[in-house]
Amino acid sequence: MAEVLSQNEIDALLNALNSGELSAEEARKDVQAVRIRSYDFKRAMRFSKDHLRSISRIYEHAARLMSTYFSAQLRQGVQVSVASVDQLPYEEFIRSIPSVTVLHVLDVHPLGGKFLVEMPNNISQAVLDRLLGGDGQSPIADRRLTEIDMLVLERLMTGSLYALTSAWGGVADLTFVYDTLEVNPQFIQIANQTDVVLVVSLATMVGNQSGIMTICMPHIALEPLMGRLSARFAFASPRSHDQPELLQRKLQKHMDRVEVVLKAELGYTNIRLDELLELQPGDIITLDQVLGEPLYVKVGDEIKYRGQPGTSRGRYAARILQVVEEEEDGE
């Protein structure tokens, strides 16, 4: 934002112009000189400050969820917080990664791109030591990862992906799928060397071990979401970006996974305990259900249908005949 002059500064400038100490041409040149700024085309800025603020809010939410998840899995306090959000060429990011580290590659649907999560080696070793029965306080930093170590880290990271899905939920319905684990950054190519990437640095504390976990996101992968990362979208009404439809799809997706108990009841009766103990094969128990009438079919503990008992492919079955209204259910 341009600097605002005070009244005294304005008066001094007018006096200098009137006295001839400063000419209008010199003032105009000074203004033009201020407008000229150097620009490095190798570090083209693709993300605005508005975009960076939105990304920071998203990963602040993700950091809180990760802290809770890692603390529960390790049975130890873990702190994760956003340290910075920067944009830089992918080549520069790769050069900044230590030669000994742990890299998790994630597929992001439906964007069609990949995100890269870099976890410092000391943090990874502390996590492994804790998960495998140690105290996680003094891991061996230069120990090479075994296949079992990689499998443990993959499962831990896979379990934490819900944090990213939830954090991005307010912007887009993204699905994160674990792809692979690498220890050499030269073997990973999620973007071209000159492409701009967004790097979120997460300050991570596991026991007495601290480090910076980074999440790298190529601009080409985030490009379809650029409009949704603006403040105007964040504060817009739900109708302006189909929020009700998004929430409905999410709710339906989760409801489809819910398991319920469906049962058809033949009827009830009351007998004494001594009668129950004296039951023999061939005895008849009279129920309150009238023969020939449809049975009540329950979903959980609620009566939802009326059905006809029978068999299907050699198994007991019930054919749904009608939906029970709430009034009949209450009776």
Description:
The chain has eleven helices and ten strands. β9 and β10 (315-323) form a beta hairpin. The protein folds into three domains: 7-37, no CATH class; 49-255, Chemotaxis protein chec (3-Layer(aba) Sandwich), CATH 3.40.1550; 262-330, Roll (Surface presentation of antigens (SPOA)). Strands 1-5-6-3-2-4 form a six-stranded antiparallel β-sheet. Strands 7-8-9-10 form a four-stranded antiparallel β-sheet, with no helix packed on it. 20% of the residues are buried. The chain has helices at residues 7-19, 24-35, 49-74, 90-96, 121-131, 147-168, 219-222, 231-234, 243-255, 273-277, 326-330; strands spanning 78-89, 101-109, 113-120, 175-182, 196-206, 209-218, 262-265, 295-299, 302-312, 315-323. With 331 residues, it is an alpha+beta fold.
Q: Which helices and strands occur, and which strands form pairs?
A:
Layout: H1 7-19, H2 24-35, H3 49-74, E1 78-89, H4 90-96, E2 101-109, E3 113-120, H5 121-131, H6 147-168, E4 175-182, E5 196-206, E6 209-218, H7 219-222, H8 231-234, H9 243-255, E7 262-265, H10 273-277, E8 295-299, E9 302-312, E10 315-323, H11 326-330
Number of domains: 3
Average pLDDT metric: 81
Q: Classify the beta-strand content into a percent band.
A: 25-35%
Q: Note the overall shape.
A: elongated
The helical percent reads 25-40%
The SSE order reads: HHHEHEEHHEEEHHHEHEEEH
Q: What Rg do the Cα atoms give?
A: 32 Å
Low-confidence stretches: 235-241
- The end-to-end distance, rounded to whole angstroms, is 71 Å
- Counted by DSSP, the helix tally is 11
Strand order of the largest sheet: 1-5-6-3-2-4
CATH superfamily of the largest domain: CheC-like
